[in-house]
Amino acid sequence: MPDSEIDYTDIPKMTKEDFANMVRNPWYKPKKIPVTIRMDSDVLSWLRSGGKGYQTRANSILKHAMMQALRRS
Q1: Whose CA is closest to 48, among 68, 65, 39, 33?
Q2: What is the CB-side half-sphere exposure of residue 60 using CA atoms within 13 A?
Q3: Which residues, including other chains, have CB under 8 Å from residue 44's CB and lie 6 or more apart?
Q4: Could you write out the DSSP letters of every residue in the chain?
């Protein structure tokens, strides 16, 4: 059935407030894949200086950069 034939009259319209109050699925966990990456030793030392979890911090930094780039484009 094409979308044009679907009856949506029993579904309330979503407001901007509805969208503003949405929460990401708390069980959502992106798939992680192992990779090998070459980086400058000073960058790796800086990441490791924060203690355990340096790979998670690196992922977070890269994700933040990715999201900014996506917003700009």
Answers
A1: 39
A2: 6
A3: 54
A4: --GGG---TTSPPPPHHHHHT----TT--PPP--------HHHHHHHHHT-S-HHHHHHHHHHHHHHHHHHH-
pLDDT values of the chain reduced to their tens digit, one per residue, 73 residues: 899 999 989 999 889 999 999 998 989 888 999 999 999 999 999 999 999 999 999 999 999 999 999 999 9
Domains of the chain, residue spans: 3-72
In whole angstroms, give the CA distance from residue 72 to residue 2: 34
Is the whole-model pTM more than 0.70?
Answer: no
